[in-house]
Amino acid sequence: MENLKNSESCDPSSFLRHFRKSSATPVMLLRHIAQAMATEMQEGLDHPGERKLKMLPTYLECLPTGNERGLFYAIDLGGTNFRVLRVQLDGKEGRILKQESIQVPIPQEVMTGSSKDLFGFLAKTIVQFVSREADLGFECVALNQKRDIGFTFSFPVNQTKVNGGSINAWTKGFSISDGVGEDVVDQLEIALADMGSVNTKVVCLVNDTVGTLAQCRYWNDDAMVGVILGTGSNACYVERAAAISCWSSPPEADDLTVVNIEWGNFCSELLPRTFADEGLDADSLNPGQQEFEKMIGGMYLGEILRRVLLKMAEDTGLFGSEIPERLTKPFSLLTPHMSTMHGDDTSSLEVVGSVIEEAIGVKYTTLATRKVVYDVCDIIAERGARLSAAGIVGILTKINRCGDLMLSCLTTPNDTEVKKTVIAIDGSLYEKYPKFRNYMEDAMKEMLGEDYANNVTTTLSKDGSGVGAALLAAAISTELRLGDVGVTK
Ligand code: ADP
Ligand code: MG
């Protein structure tokens, strides 16, 4: 966009032409990005904590198989709400017989209080929910038996074991005065013990990508990757336990575990960045970080759109001689606005017009202007979706599930040797933005080749951060009960 940065004025169509060019993601570029992602993943594994990809170990030694039986709990603390959930499992025949959850907002005074206040609040909510087990017709846990809980905790954690890790920082509007450096599971267990009677045990501490993968794996052994495409973006995948160099007592060398990539922080010269990405990053709370996430996350796509439209208003007079006031306000355009406009299939682009009026405050627009706005949405969403696809293919490259990437369009792989791979995805971008999803899936086909792509399926794994964590708790407790240290393959 060099030539656009200093341009005093130009017409919208030539601006658009340049913008399209600098956002382009031709398939060869995507393949190189995928390769760079795979290389960075290996770097992160080889140098724990020292590279752009953190490649955090989960210390999981098993994933759900579908054979689990009994009553299991999950708790999910990720943002403004706290959720507690239970599932009654009945093996492969009955699967999830029953499921129940509650969601409570975290009171403001708890979000800004002490960690004792927060964990006390969580413990109280858990105890109340557990006490209604029998009323709701769930099979009760025997008096002498503990209730196993999977804990989804979506804050930065330095994980040290499958059910423990210290808090690195409170984020997302929480400003707790203490607790950083403390073990999150210990703090919860202490708060639960203070409450007295409930017999519970947190058996795993996970993040939402891992829950997403676990939920899908419960139904399908071929699930290998979990991806979040929501406010932010991240992914995890099934890796050999032997690859985790910091695991002091790993299971057998060829056993499997899960690694949380933290792929949002991927960065590369290869990424097609524009003036809008640079501005967004410079004005963000974490400049220089999360470069990949800032090009694909739901928190950012709408803001990229706003920055491009503002520049077009300034340089090309897109909205007339005045710059719309609201367009100058960061985050005045959100990703749902963008997907609504992008979904407009009326010939006069009426929906685009009404979103422009409602969000930007411009009452009258010509069809030509609305078409330009539509095209900018298309370019930004297509780029984000195709980069997400490159990230996924990068993981497939790392685990040897991508065929021969560079040759795949020339050769037909031998079907009998090819393993099926399922990618579990959760988040509103994938679920509620059909054009984003289609662009992503098309790019995966382009990169992998039509034939090989038939072996790779992407699927919505909704609510993994809740149910997935309960299923993981079930898998772990089943392994422990069987005294089986082997890992689900
Ligand atoms: P979270 O990531 O917080 O768990 P979601 O997966 O629901 O939650 O993702 C929320 C993000 O998705 C927000 O950034 C929001 O702007 C975006 N979003 C919500 N609905 C839509 C939609 N219909 N189309 C596109 N983006 C959406
Ligand atoms: Mg989510």
UniProtKB/TrEMBL annotation:
<dbReference type="GO" id="GO:0001678">
    <property type="term" value="P:intracellular glucose homeostasis"/>
</dbReference>
<protein>
    <recommendedName>
        <fullName>Phosphotransferase</fullName>
        <ecNumber>2.7.1.-</ecNumber>
    </recommendedName>
</protein>
<dbReference type="GO" id="GO:0005524">
    <property type="term" value="F:ATP binding"/>
</dbReference>
<keyword id="KW-0547">Nucleotide-binding</keyword>
<dbReference type="Pfam" id="PF00349">
    <property type="entry name" value="Hexokinase_1"/>
</dbReference>
<dbReference type="GO" id="GO:0019318">
    <property type="term" value="P:hexose metabolic process"/>
</dbReference>
<dbReference type="InterPro" id="IPR019807">
    <property type="entry name" value="Hexokinase_BS"/>
</dbReference>
<dbReference type="InterPro" id="IPR043129">
    <property type="entry name" value="ATPase_NBD"/>
</dbReference>
<feature type="domain" description="Hexokinase C-terminal">
    <location>
        <begin position="225"/>
        <end position="474"/>
    </location>
</feature>
<feature type="domain" description="Hexokinase N-terminal">
    <location>
        <begin position="17"/>
        <end position="218"/>
    </location>
</feature>
<comment type="pathway">
    <text>Carbohydrate metabolism; hexose metabolism.</text>
</comment>
<keyword id="KW-0808">Transferase</keyword>
<comment type="similarity">
    <text>Belongs to the hexokinase family.</text>
</comment>
<dbReference type="GO" id="GO:0004340">
    <property type="term" value="F:glucokinase activity"/>
</dbReference>
<keyword id="KW-0324">Glycolysis</keyword>
<dbReference type="GO" id="GO:0006096">
    <property type="term" value="P:glycolytic process"/>
</dbReference>
<dbReference type="InterPro" id="IPR022672">
    <property type="entry name" value="Hexokinase_N"/>
</dbReference>
<keyword id="KW-0067">ATP-binding</keyword>
<dbReference type="GO" id="GO:0005536">
    <property type="term" value="F:D-glucose binding"/>
</dbReference>
<dbReference type="Pfam" id="PF03727">
    <property type="entry name" value="Hexokinase_2"/>
</dbReference>
<comment type="pathway">
    <text>Carbohydrate degradation; glycolysis; D-glyceraldehyde 3-phosphate and glycerone phosphate from D-glucose: step 1/4.</text>
</comment>
<dbReference type="InterPro" id="IPR001312">
    <property type="entry name" value="Hexokinase"/>
</dbReference>
<keyword id="KW-0418">Kinase</keyword>
<dbReference type="InterPro" id="IPR022673">
    <property type="entry name" value="Hexokinase_C"/>
</dbReference>
